[in-house]
Every structure is written in C-alpha cells, then in structure tokens.
Design a protein that fits this description.
- With 457 residues, the protein is of the alpha/beta class.
- A hairpin with a 2-residue loop joins strand 12 and strand 13.
- It is globular.
C-alpha cells in the first residue's frame, strides 16, 4: 500500500514536470517564430504604416496632457459633453483626428471678442518660415536673423470668454464650396498670406490666377471647392498716378468714384475682408466730380491742404456705397479696422524703429493723435454703411483689430525684412507684420466671426 502511494506520487510529479516542460517548449517555439519572421516582414509593415503618412504630411503633435485646449492641434482624450462643445471626427491626411468643435461659436455670443489682453502661450506659432511657401521676403523675420522668439508665444484672451485658436481642418469644412476675397493694401495681402500659411498645415492650393501680379492673385483648394482672392486697392476708390514710374509722386484720388478692379468682382463672393489705412498718409490730390478739392503733402499753394482723415472718410463712404449697391450679393463683408504702425524714436523716414520684444498690457498703451482720428473716422463711416446695408439686406460686420494690434509693437519686421547691406540705409518696417507672428491671430477672429454669423442665419 505504501509502495503504491509512493509510485502514484512519483507519477504525478513526472506529469507536472512534463506539462511544465511542454509549456516552456511552446513559448520557446513561439518566441523563435516571432524573432525569425518579424525581421523579414518589418520593412513591409513599416512601409504600410508610412504610406498613410508621407514625410510632408507628418506633424509633430504633443500629447493632450502637454497641449493646452487653446492649441489647434489639441485632441481631447474623451468625448466632451459640456454645454456647447462636441468632438467631431475628421478624416485627416493619413490619420483620423478628433477636433474640438464649438457648435455655437465661443459659447457666449454676447462676449466682446475685441476686449481683452494678450496672454502667454507656450506652444508658439503653428508653422515656421521654412514650412510655409507664402511668406514674402520682407516679412520673413526669422530668415533674416531676428534673434528673439518670444513674440511668437502670445495669444489673445477676451475678458469674458475664450477665443478658440484657428483650426485649419474645421475652417476648410466651414468654407467648403465657398469663396473669400481680400480687398485692400499690402497689410491685407499680409493677412491673406498668414491664412495661406495656417492652411498649409493641412492643404496646399493651386494658383489659378490670371496674372503673376501678387496684388491680384487667386488660389483654389480643389478638394474643398474653396477659393481665396486678393484685390489690390490701397485707397479703395478710383486712383491714378501722376507719374507712372515713380510711386513716391502724388496719387490722384477720385473720392466719389468706385474702384472697379474690386467693386465689379466681389458680387459672387461669400466672404469679403476689406481694409485700408497706411496709404492715406502719402502725398495725394483729391478729386470730387472730377474737380480738385484738396491735397495732402502737395507743393501747390493754390490747392487747399487737407488732412488724411478727409480722404479716408470719403473713400470709406464711397466703398460702402459700392458694396450696398450690389444687387445679388448674398455674402458677408468684414471690415478689418485700421491698424496702427509702431515707429518709435522718430518717423519712418527719420530712423524710427520698433524694437520691443513683448506686447503691452492693455493699460500700458493708449492710442492717440492721427491713429485715433483715423480709427474714429472709419468707425463713423462703418456705422453709416452698416445701417444702410441692413436696410438693403447686405451684411457688413466689424472685425475690430485696432486696439488689439496697438498692443503688439513687437510683431513688426523692423530691420529683419532684408539682409543687412553695407553703406545702405533702409527704413525700418513697423507697418507690416512678421510671418509667423501676431497677425496670425486675425484668422482666429475670422473663423470665430464666421461661426457666429452662421449661427445667426
């Protein structure tokens, strides 16, 4: 009996050892197969993975824990069901991205977007001078040696709400099948190029312009059936040069006549962004009904000398009259308000410069003198034009960037819009804006205003 028990115990031990050895053997065989097969197929697996995201499409995205929700590449980890927010899945370029979309704009439609402060934003810009093709040399501050980067790390924070940062994927969905026109001067072109740079993170347009002139360009995003156009009109009204070869000579402004280079073109656009400002400080001769009624910085003593606001007022009045006469215009006109320059230490032609490296606080800078007069004049004409537009069914709304950009003396090219030249003195540029730079925030406002207008309709 004892012998039988001993033999049975030995049998159980041998059985358990046999089972253990079998499991170990299975694991060893599986490991051997993995180590043998994976290296053979790894190149193919890597090819499949990389095929969906080509090198030009890759974007370095930080995790949701390191990105603030203001960042346009922020992707929430769970579906958010708060008030006016929902997560919408977009088919990205080789990936699917969850984009935080606001179903009713910023959530607080009564919030004044244009009253607030610039606050620090560690994420910085969302493109570089090396990743965007649309930057002109005189705005390419990083290329020409601007040493600081702090001017890129600020965002606008309204007092009563949040201003979502521009999301190129959502923007292209909003404008699908639509068209956008910029009307104005080189700062309007600066704004358009900022928009092109922000969109370049997800899509590139075709240049379908009828001209090589940068002042009259048209870009098409065929996947979205969306076009962006620019119409050069620094004075907004009919204009002639007194000297066709010398841009420094006085211009003739026919203050009561439409500039048909844009007024005859915008009727079928869905969005029009119109602006003007700095050219009204140049030498000009003013006409009404084809008669001289004054001038600015002209040598003739027989002509009545008038201020910049004289022509500025009449030019905006004529521009709004042209817009409100459009019979079939069903779109929205955004008036981008006057934006001041930031020359310190002298005027532009006497060594004035803009060397600050951070924004002002709202209580540190007050707009005054001619800048304030230009802004007030524009607002007065806007009120008249907007009221007439409402009566005729034309939507005109204000994109009030004046005080916001008054606080950004740090965002101009200054001397970093060209290579340093020996024995050559060039004026510092404190009018245009670096790309990337503070002007990119204008598209945050543009997108939010588009969403708000869509909610009202």
């Amino acid at each position: 009996m004892k012998l039988h028990a001993i033999n049975e115990s030995k049998t159980q031990i041998l059985t358990r050892r046999s089972t253990t050895y079998s499991k170990i053997l299975v694991h060893l065989i599986a490991l051997t197969l993995i180590l043998t097969i994976l290296p053979i197929y790894y190149p193919y697996i890597r090819y499949i993975l990389e095929k969906t995201t080509s090198p030009s499409d890759r974007v370095h995205v930080q995790t949701a824990t390191t990105l603030s929700y203001h960042h346009p590449l922020y992707r929430p980890t769970t579906l958010e069901k708060e008030n006016d927010q929902k997560v919408v899945m977009h088919e990205g370029r080789g990936r699917r991205d969850g984009v935080l979309r606001r179903s009713s704009g910023s959530g607080n439609k009564s919030c004044d977007l244009f009253s607030g402060e610039w606050v620090e934003s560690p994420e910085g810009s969302y493109y570089t001078n090396e990743t965007c093709w649309a930057i002109q040399e005189h705005q390419n501050c990083l290329k020409f040696g601007r040493p600081d980067r702090g001017f890129l790390k600020w965002r606008w924070k309204p007092y009563g709400c949040e201003l979502p940062v521009f999301d190129p994927v959502e923007f292209l969905e909003i404008v699908r099948g639509k068209s956008l026109a910029f009307v104005g001067d080189s700062v309007a072109r600066n704004h358009m190029q900022s928009l092109l740079c922000l969109l370049s993170r997800v899509a590139y347009p075709n240049d379908v312009s009828n001209s090589s002139d940068l002042n009259f360009k048209r870009y098409e995003y065929p996947k979205y059936n969306f076009t962006i156009s620019i119409f050069w009109s620094p004075y907004l009204v009919n204009t002639e040069r007194t000297d066709g070869q010398d841009i420094t000579q006085p211009f003739k402004l026919y203050l009561d006549e439409f500039d048909e280079s844009w007024t005859s073109q915008i009727e079928n656009f869905n969005y029009v962004i119109i602006s003007a400002g700095q050219w009204f400080f140049r030498p000009t001769i003013f006409y009404s009904d084809r008669h001289v009624i004054g001038c600015l910085y002209c040598p003739e003593t027989s002509i009545r000398h008038r201020s910049s606001t004289f022509s500025y007022r009449r030019a905006w009045r004529t521009a709004f009259r042209a817009i409100n006469r459009l019979k079939n215009f069903k779109g929205i006109v955004f008036l981008r308000s006057f934006v001041p320059s930031h020359f310190e230490g002298g005027p532009w032609d006497k060594g004035g410069d803009c060397v600050r490296t951070k924004p002002y606080k709202s209580n540190e800078s007050v707009m005054e003198d001619y800048n304030l007069e230009m802004y007030k004049t524009q607002l007065q004409e806007y009120k008249y034009g907007e009221r007439e537009g409402r009566r005729k069914g034309v939507k005109i709304t204000l994109m009030d960037m004046t005080q916001i950009m008054q606080l950004r003396p740090d965002g101009h090219p200054s001397k970093y819009g060209h290579l340093p030249l020996q024995n050559v003195t060039m004026a510092n540029d404190c009018v245009h804006w670096c790309l990337p730079g503070p002007i990119d925030s204008w598209n945050d406002f543009l997108m939010e205003l588009m969403i708000r207008e869509a909610c009202r309709r």
